[in-house]
């Protein structure tokens, strides 16, 4: 599903935490990822098929965009390889991720 273009209103609630350095927007120590690059980041986070918790942990260290946790869970849940190898019933519980 294509993402809408960048909208400043999407980030309004985070305004107090956003700042820029050399053209890169940061929220705290995390790089704010534009919508055009989010799928690439999701693919990189998921590349080793470590599961939802590990994907969230990797993301929490370095990247941010609104609803990232939901996007990570969707990416994991849509992976046939992960679903085949999972010993637990597939779920969409994002509580394994701590909101960033």
Automatic annotation (TrEMBL):
Pfam families referenced in this protein's UniProt entry, alphabetically = Integrase_H2C2 (PF17921)
- Domain named Integrase zinc-binding: which ranges? 33-86
Q: Which Gene3D superfamilies match?
A: 1.10.340.70
Question: Known PANTHER family for this protein?
Answer: INTEGRASE CATALYTIC DOMAIN-CONTAINING PROTEIN, PROTEIN CBG26694
The protein's name is: Integrase zinc-binding domain-containing protein
Organism equals: Elysia crispata (lettuce slug)
Could you read off the lineage of the organism from its UniProt record?
Answer: Eukaryota, Metazoa, Spiralia, Lophotrochozoa, Mollusca
């Amino acid at each position: 599903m294509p993402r809408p273009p960048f909208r400043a209103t999407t980030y309004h609630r985070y305004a107090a935490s956003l700042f820029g350095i050399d053209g890169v927007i940061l929220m705290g120590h995390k790089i704010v990822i534009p919508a055009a690059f989010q799928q690439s980041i999701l693919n990189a986070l998921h590349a080793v098929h470590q599961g939802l918790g590990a994907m969230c942990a990797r993301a929490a260290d370095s990247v941010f965009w609104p609803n990232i946790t939901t996007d990570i869970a969707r990416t994991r849940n849509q992976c046939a390889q992960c679903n085949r190898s999972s010993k637990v019933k597939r779920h969409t519980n994002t509580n394994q991720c701590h909101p960033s």
